[in-house]
Design goal:
The complex is a heterodimer of chains A (579) and B (173).
Chain A (H helix, E strand, L loop, with lengths): L17 E2 H11 L4 E4 L6 H9 L5 E4 L3 H15 L3 E5 L3 H4 L2 H9 L4 E7 L15 H5 L5 E4 L6 H13 L5 E7 H5 L1 E2 L20 H13 L3 E5 L1 H5 L3 H11 L3 E3 L14 E4 L6 H9 L2 E5 L5 H4 L10 E6 L13 E4 L2 H11 L7 H13 L13 H11 L5 E4 L3 H9 L8 E2 L10 H11 L5 E6 H7 L3 H7 L4 E6 L4 H10 L15 H7 L3 E5 L2 H13 L4 E6 L29
Chain B lengths: L1 E9 L4 H11 L3 E9 L5 E9 L3 H13 L3 E6 L5 E12 L2 H11 L5 E5 L3 E8 L1 H11 L4 E6 L3 E4 L17
Antiparallel strand pairs in B: 1-3, 1-4, 2-3, 5-7, 5-8, 5-9, 6-7
Classes of the chains: A alpha/beta (579), B alpha+beta (173).
């Protein structure tokens, strides 16, 4: 096997026999892996020994819990578009990764996970730290492998990276028995592979594109729904060109935020359960819906029978199984988003007459903007997020957990560029945002990275504060602290007659002291004045910072579509409707 | 509706688990599944009989199966010209007097007796689902002591009728 030689990496130039772990390290170098998020343990001792021998070929990030490593790898993958690499030991090491693997699967993030496994001879005997990683991860991975012989290892690694990062990205698990990683191989095995069952279709069928351009030429109320597929396909420029040349309004999904500039006159903001009035009404009233790389998630569509009821639906997706899964689709286009948009721009010369439609939408925007009450004596979270936006010029990388703070960040932190929004969308994972920010900061050291987290979610993975100290990462942890599991509290208020069952976190650590115990700076913000005085500098400093923002507990996320309701049945669209 | 779906798969460890796990996860009801090697080394074929509520679900099923890395080809062959067969082994109670009577029952089904003991005999029958059901019903009065059935296995006939040949010509016109 030929490996790109690095000067400090002498082992590549000689022909000494190599262990399985050495072959793994070589394969990672060949995949140009620079950063590994991992945690050692019994079954991966040979691998960690090989990593030690590899010296500074890799930057190994030792998160303090395996869940932290995989969320960090997800943040890294989300920002770079390259696979995040994770190593964990067998048994509990592997099972601690499950949440992250499922999260990456739901949000289509390229992750390659290497788990140690007990030696081949004892697999199936309930050996110490044995878990059926293949059985557990099969439903939550794009693909998984258990390496059966040393000769298969280099090829398997290559396949894993190929599968994780092409087509619709996703997590791939490679389970490596300990005896394979310590076995010695005299002759480097071949890495040639063929995957006849895996041939993602990247180019659109021109006839289908023609169908869409024909429909577009006659559409009166067209709208684009732009999802994460636009970001994965690096097609944000093409989307902008297409939307501008045809005057097409754009609704973003939660995960698609940043694929279209949030301040653009054609941007309607986010659609769905907590989307803007205009975005949801555009989806409801449109006569042509062009979905680019979104999967019609239930949080976006609301009740399906009220979703785009009058529309011809066109769906561009690299994954054919997403087309027609939830919403009947008249114009299916299986393609990479960039290739499809290029073909659309090439073919579609006729500009639809949408002036009236754009006027209607402008009217909605004027009549029903996002709103919140902002009494000067209180600190309301929406205003906080707007200030974070202003103080960072809208250019920060924002990571979030799931819940109220996530929705407020999505609503009020208007993103202009792709790959700067790292959130747990499909799985909705508490504890995702902070470790993801670590991965994002490692991937993009010069950017301001703000982990917008809830007080509940932060406490699920706050052990990773160690990493800010150890790696001196200038991550800003912004705790939107309402002393509650806010979204749970909101649902209990609205749908369970204010029975706040286990959703109020009245006992909390002193987050400032907590930060200090990790030798980090912490600050507490309790008023609007505090924000104006302290936040601009706190966000600009090149140091890590834990910012505990005490916001109004009773604040709810609006507008809202109650579960089981349609897009047009939003509540809380205007201040007067709140009570 | 009952559909017969075949999947050509790479014979790798765990592939059966992938397919059945996928169907279970997406709430598809498997009526039967049979797996075996094909003429090509390393390639297996699965015949899956499923009950799906509508064509949209059926489309999901074939697309999700196709998405699996180890699955090479998926076809819904229900409406094609196919040969399809399953096998059943039926042990019925019998004695010397009854043997020829049972022999007479199974003969039109082209089933055969493959084992005889003092108080029972074992019948092997292959063919369509309904045919096997019919034979089982006929043998039931003799006392079925043990019954084992394979799932359906099927593939396309060598010659598929063209659409034009399928028009209903009637000799009466």
């Amino acid at each position: 096997m030929k490996v790109e030689a690095k000067p400090h990496y002498e082992r590549n130039t000689d022909t000494k026999p190599k262990t399985g772990a050495d072959l793994l390290v070589d394969a990672l170098i060949q995949q140009e892996v620079k950063t590994i998020f991992g945690y050692p343990g019994g079954a991966v001792l040979p691998i960690y020994d090989a990593l030690h021998r590899a010296g500074d070929s890799f930057h190994h990030v030792l998160a303090r819990h395996e869940q932290g490593s995989i969320h960090a790898a997800e943040g890294y993958a989300r920002v770079t578009g390259k696979p995040g690499v994770v190593i964990a030991t067998s048994g509990p090491g592997a099972t601690n990764l499950i949440t992250g693997i499922a999260d990456a699967m739901m949000d289509s993030l390229p992750i390659v996970v290497f788990t140690g496994q007990v030696a081949r001879g004892v697999i199936g005997t309930d050996a110490f730290q044995e878990a059926d990683v293949m059985g557990i991860t099969t439903p939550i991975t794009k693909h998984n492998y258990q390496v059966q012989s040393l000769a298969d290892l280099p090829r398997t690694v290559k396949e894993a990276f190929h599968i994780a990062s092409t087509g619709r990205p996703g997590p791939v698990v490679v389970d490596i028995p300990k005896d394979i990683s310590s076995e010695v191989e005299e002759n480097p095995p071949s890495v040639d592979f063929s995957l006849p069952g895996y041939q993602p279709n990247l180019k659109p069928n021109p006839l289908q594109v023609k169908k869409l351009t024909d429909a577009l030429a006659h559409a009166k109320r067209p709208v684009i729904l732009a999802g994460a597929g636009v970001i994965h396909g690096k097609a944000a420029e093409e989307l902008k060109t297409f939307a501008e040349s045809h005057s097409l309004p754009v609704v973003n999904t939660l995960l698609g935020l940043g694929s279209f500039p949030g301040s653009h006159p054609l941007s309607l903001g986010m659609g769905g359960m907590h989307g803007t009035y205009t975005a949801n009404m555009a989806l409801y009233e449109c006569d042509l819906l062009i979905n680019i790389g979104a999967r019609f998630d239930d949080r976006l569509t609301g009740k399906l029978e009220h979703f785009a009821p009058q529309a011809t639906v066109a769906h561009i997706d690299i994954d054919p199984a997403e087309i027609g899964k939830n919403v009947p689709t008249q114009i299916p286009i299986v393609s990479d988003s960039k290739a499809a948009l290029e073909e659309l721009i090439r073919q579609s010369k006729e500009i639809p007459h949408v002036e009236e439609w754009l006027e209607t939408l402008k009217g909605y925007q004027k009549e029903y903007p996002l709103w919140y009450n902002n009494p000067e004596s209180k600190l309301v979270p929406q205003w906080l997020l707007e200030k974070v936006h202003d103080y960072t010029g809208g250019n920060a990388i924002i990571t979030t957990d799931v819940g109220q703070h996530q929705m407020w960040a999505a609503q009020y932190y208007k993103l202009e560029k792709p790959n700067r929004w790292v959130t747990s969308g499909g799985l909705g994972t508490m504890g995702f945002g902070f470790p993801a920010a670590i991965g994002a900061q490692i991937a993009s050291p010069d950017d301001t990275v703000v982990a917008v987290v809830g007080d509940g979610g932060f406490q699920m993975t706050l052990q990773e504060l160690s990493l800010l100290q150890e790696l001196d990462l200038p991550v800003k942890v912004l705790i939107v602290n309402n002393e509650a599991l806010g979204m749970v509290r909101q649902w209990q208020e609205k749908f369970y007659e204010e029975r706040y069952s286990q959703s109020l976190l009245n006992t909390q650590p002193d987050f400032v002291k907590l930060a200090e115990s990790y030798n980090l700076k912490g600050m507490k913000i309790t008023s609007q004045q505090d924000i104006e005085e302290k936040l601009p500098d706190a966000l600009k400093t090149r140091e890590p910072m834990v910012i505990d923002c005490r916001v109004l507990r009773e604040e709810n996320v609006y507008p809202m579509i109650a579960p089981g309701k349609g897009l047009h049945e939003m509540i809380g669209v205007k201040p007067c409707e709140e009570s | 509706m009952r559909r017969i779906v075949t999947a050509t798969v790479q014979n790798r460890s765990g592939v059966l688990n992938r397919v059945t796990g996928l169907l279970a996860k997406r709430q598809f009801n498997i009526e039967s599944i049979s797996v075996g090697r094909t003429e090509t080394e390393g390639i297996s074929k699965m015949t899956i009989v499923v009950d799906v509520p509508d064509t949209q679900k059926l489309e999901q099923l074939t697309k999700q199966l196709n998405k699996q890395i180890d699955v090479l080809k998926v076809s819904d062959i229900t409406d094609k010209a196919i040969v399809a067969s399953e096998l059943a082994l039926i042990r019925v109670g019998s004695n010397a007097q009854l043997r020829s009577e049972i022999q007479g029952i199974i003969e039109p089904f082209r089933a055969s007796v493959i084992d005889i003991s003092r108080d029972s005999l074992t019948v092997q029958v292959t063919g369509k689902h309904e045919k096997i059901e019919a034979l089982i019903d006929l043998l039931r009065p003799y006392g079925i002591k043990e019954l084992a059935r394979t799932g359906l296995t099927a593939f396309l006939r060598g010659h598929q009728p063209q659409v034009t040949e399928m028009k209903n010509y009637s000799i009466l016109k």
